[in-house]
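Sequence and structure are kept together here, with a separate record for every protein. An example record follows, reproduced without changes.
>
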Amino acid sequence: MACSSEEAPPLAPVPAAPVASPDPWVEFIDRELEAHLAAHPAWAVSQGRHEYDGQLPDWSEAGLKREAARLKAARRAARAFASETLRPEQQYQRDYFISRIDHDLFWLEKARWPMRNPQFYLGWMSDSLDPSPYLTLDYAPPAERMAAFTRYLEAIPEAAKHIRANLRMPMPESWLQLGVDAFGGYASYFRDEVPAAWAAVDDSALQQRFSAANARAIAAMQGLADWLESSRNIADQNFALGEALYKEMLWDTERVRIDLETLEQLARRDMARNVAALRQACGAFAPGREIPDCVAQMAAPTPTPHKGMLRVSWPGALVVISSVPRSLPPSVG
């Protein structure tokens, strides 16, 4: 059988799949997310972005101003996306994004929290001094996490310097007490409990570096606590935001508009329900004890954990206990 010498006709080219045009809103949000992670590295670590391990936010005066400027620029850019150019879910994302920026700017600039309240450095959207991701999340081998934790410790003296430069005196006594308890609690925690968490890591150079960094971090945190304590004699009770700023807070942070009289009535009814539930729970947990004593018993240190378990204390526990009132407001008891 003879073979044909004719060549088969060439195959028709397969048309290339159309390349989807990039979505401007998606690109914008992706950029802003990365910018936010870079500006809030401690929060980034808690979200699993461990390229930020060991870093703390820039709490210098210039750093806080840069963050406020970044947020304002992001808000302007988000507002530039007209609703007709966005899908319904993107419109919701835009509005939520703007509301979150308003929230952050309220505490940064209107309430001036970095200058007035130690709480800014203890719970600012989880971008704080909290070291728990390194100690409680088994995201890497112990030596790697210990190295990250050591870098975190090495960042603390600089952060403490900025915290002290930022906070203004006099300060409301309750806020001052929060700072004394929390910063002093970190010093005790680093000194008394943290070394055991890394004792099994067999790396002498890393252990030496950790010990040196831990000593400096202890001194920095205790120094902050002592400095706050030294100002107790001029502490005041001027913690109230005032009616105008409180209304701004409700809108900027919660998107709520309501007259304050109605809000107080709702809050007192809610508090009464919660106090009743707490009293019932304490009656079962610690019969015959007052609510503050019941809460203190609940928060007391637990027995020594089993061998091999890591005990992690919360330096702010005393703050919560001390905030439970010995008597209840009118109309609640």
The chain is about 60% helix and 0% strand.
